[in-house]
Amino acid sequence: xxxxxxxxxxxxxxxxxxxxxxxxxxxxxxxxxxxxxxxxxxxxxxxxxxxxxxxxxxxxxxxxxxxxxxxxxxxxxxxxxxxxxxxxxxxxxxxxxxxxxxxxxxxxxxxxxxxxxxxxxxxxxx
Length: 126
Fold this sequence. Notes:
single chain
């Protein structure tokens, strides 16, 4: 089964996908967060045969929800209703900072891959 990773932002959404075995995550694309977002995600979900979605859960340094947390929860609800797939959350603490170490200016898809890889690593250890 393939997984879809999402780094949600109010302007852009980073997207990553896994390999068929659900072992490795790869940056896929950066989408504008607009009225076409769900349609664009649907094309990826159908084209890659995605079975589960992992969304980065944004928290502050103390682990508490931050200002974007509510928007992420609303987005997760939209995903669940639109695609009828399991949607999991994975903490996204400093993934953009980590992705920038690879020298890219727009890091959203790389951050999504880091979020997804963390989830897959944790899942595969269980």
